[in-house]
Specification:
Layout: E1 7-8, E2 12-17, E3 23-28, E4 35-39, E5 44-49, E6 55-61, E7 67-73, E8 89-93, E9 99-103, E10 111-116, E11 122-127, E12 132-136, E13 142-146, E14 152-157, E15 163-168, E16 172-177, E17 182-188, E18 197-199, E19 206-213, E20 216-223, E21 228-236, E22 240-245, E23 250-255, E24 259-265, E25 271-278, E26 286-288, E27 294-300, E28 306-312
Antiparallel strand pairs: 1-28, 2-3, 3-4, 4-5, 6-7, 7-8, 8-9, 10-11, 11-12, 12-13, 14-15, 15-16, 16-17, 18-19, 19-20, 20-21, 22-23, 23-24, 24-25, 26-27, 27-28
């Protein structure tokens, strides 16, 4: 697992680091088993999990590191008549690799996301079709639902767990109050492919989103409290897959052409393109390690081998 060298495993759609940074779970856009877990200290393969359908889209550890949530589906072969499609979201025991339970989500033929609240008590799910659903992690009971009209690609909880942030194909990012399931804030202009939104690590004072204006793909930086746009960052020539914060003053984004852009904040407080790194093909998954020292990014090497890369930060 050397820096800048592909780790072959197939098309990587998403990553999950364990809270202690010792394990990396990788969601693969391909046939089962499509969730793979590695131990980073020595690069050992821990186990594979029989994830979801033909497409795994999410792998996320619980805050205590004891459970792994996975999400995906089989949208090219699946059928949906308004009833739950089985096995889209699964919870696994990290110690044993055994299935704990399946959540009976009602999000259509695929689930794009399954995330834990900061205290680990709740799981939020969403995907091909609304609604956003909230589940109790301890027993898998559904405890809440938020209507949503279109596909949601990514969600995140606010650091205090009081809000849920959803990035949908309806070209907006929405902030929802967990206690009342009410809409608190809307940010416009997110991309209709791989839409993403990420809160800054200072308590979410800023929000970074992916977006398209005309034919230009942009990373946008917002004042979260005011809901006002601070800056639009251009540099990507195609759909942006993800945007993540690598510290208070650094952003990283990747795209379908394989370009990874590092944006640094300058003395004026604005972000500017700092450097780029290019994989040999489409880059989907993107994550910063818990210690903030390493970036993992999906991609393809020069010979067409699909997998993921580690880059130092």
């Amino acid at each position: 697992m050397a820096a800048g060298v592909v780790n072959p495993c197939g098309r990587t759609s998403n990553f999950g680091y364990s809270p202690d940074g010792q394990l990396l779970a990788v969601a693969i856009d391909g046939p089962r088993p499509n969730i793979r877990v590695w131990r980073l200290a020595d690069g050992a393969h821990v186990f594979d999990l029989d994830g979801v359908g033909e497409h795994a889209y999410r792998a996320e550890f619980s805050p205590d590191g004891r459970m792994l949530a996975t999400a995906g589906g089989d949208w090219d072969n699946g059928t949906w008549d308004g009833k739950p499609v089985p096995d889209l979201v699964k919870l696994w025991d990290v110690a044993t690799g055994e299935l704990v339970r399946t959540l009976p989500v009602t999000c259509g033929v695929y689930a794009t996301t399954a995330i834990f609240s900061p205290d680990g008590t709740l799981i939020a799910t969403a995907g091909h079709q609304g609604p956003i659903e909230i589940w109790r992690a301890s027993d898998g009971a559904r405890v809440g639902s938020i209507p949503y009209p279109t596909t949601i690609h990514n969600m995140r909880f606010s650091p205090d767990g009081r809000q849920l942030i959803a990035a949908g194909v309806d070209r907006r990012v929405t902030f929802w109050n967990m206690a009342t399931a009410t809409l608190a804030l809307t940010l416009t202009g997110t991309s209709d492919e791989m839409a993403d939104a990420a809160l800054s690590p200072d308590g979410g004072l800023e929000t970074a989103t992916t977006g398209v204006e005309g034919v230009t793909s942009l990373v946008k930086v917002w004042d979260t409290a005011a809901g006002t746009l601070r800056q639009s960052l251009s540099g990507h020539a195609t759909f942006i897959s993800h945007v993540v914060w690598a510290g208070r003053d650094r952003l990283v984004s990747n795209d379908w052409g394989g370009k990874i852009i590092f944006w640094n904040r300058d003395a004026s407080g604005a972000f500017a393109l700092s450097s780029t790194w290019v994989t040999g093909g489409q880059s989907w998954g993107l994550i910063v390690s818990p210690d903030g020292k390493t970036l993992a990014a999906g991609g393809v090497n020069s010979t067409g081998v699909e997998g993921f890369f580690f880059l130092p930060l």
